[in-house]
Structures are given as C-alpha cells and as structure tokens.
Amino acid sequence: MFTAQQYRAKAAEFRAFLISPKETREFRDLEQTYTTLAENEEWMAVHLDKTIQRRKNSENRTALAEEEEQILKCLGAAVLMRWNTVPTKLQRELFDCASTIGDLQQTTPLKGQIARFLHNHKNDQQKSD
C-alpha cells in the first residue's frame, strides 16, 4: 500500500509532466487522482477509530483473506475478459493503478510484467467468442 506521502510524490511527478495542451488534461487528472488518494490515506490515518476493524481472531482473518483473494481474482478475471472493450483512457488508469500496488521498488518490473501479460492475452476474449 502507498502512504499519503508516496501518493503526494506521485502527484507531483505527474504535475511535472504538464507541458503540452494535449497531455495536460491527462496528467492533471492523474495528479488529481493521486492527490485524492493521498487525502484519503491521511483521512484514514486520522479517523482510524471511525472505520470498521476486522476481528483479531487469526482463523477468521485467514478466512477473510482467502475470501478477499478469491473476490480479487474474480474481479481481475472479469476486467481481463472485457479489456478490449474498456476505453483506452480507463485501460491506462487501470494499468497505472495496478502497477503501483505494492512495493515501490517493484513498480518498474511489475509494469513490464503487466504490459507483457496484457499484450500476450489481448485477443483471448475474441478467440473464445
């Protein structure tokens, strides 16, 4: 997960790209997205006591983690099944979001892995129709 500070750094990175009019809107949108994520992280840190907490029971935690993993797999598969019908702008946002999940040091290799995966499977849905 990103911290608020990491989201703000990412927002500043996109702010620096605001050069050409064509790209300005896209990068401004990305800057706003990361700024909003930073604000959300800060709100969560301040209002942790107002959020729903999981039980401390380790058996329950394991069951919830497995359930969430299954849900994420299903959602990911559904997105991939319809990837070619998703608007390009949304594809880019999903790609950028997915490639920044987890450890920041793994972002570049992860981007490459995701890009190769999407390229290798770009016509899978069309083949099965």
Task: Give the secondary structure arrangement, pairings included.
Blueprint: H1 4-15, H2 21-46, H3 58-81, H4 88-99, H5 107-120, H6 124-128
Helix pairs in contact: 1-2, 4-5
Assign an overall shape.
globular
How big is the Rg?
18 Å
**Helical segment tally?**
6
Strand-residue fraction?
A: under 5%
Uncertain runs:
none
The end-to-end span amounts to 37 Å
What would you say this structure looks like, in words?
With 129 residues, the protein is an all-alpha fold. The chain is built from 6 helices and no strands. α1 (4-15) packs antiparallel against α2 (21-46) and α4 (88-99) packs across α5. It is globular and about 55 Å long.
List keywords for this structure.
single chain, 0% strand, 129 residues, mainly alpha
In short:
The mean pLDDT is 77. The chain has helices spanning 4-15, 21-46, 58-81, 88-99, 107-120, 124-128.
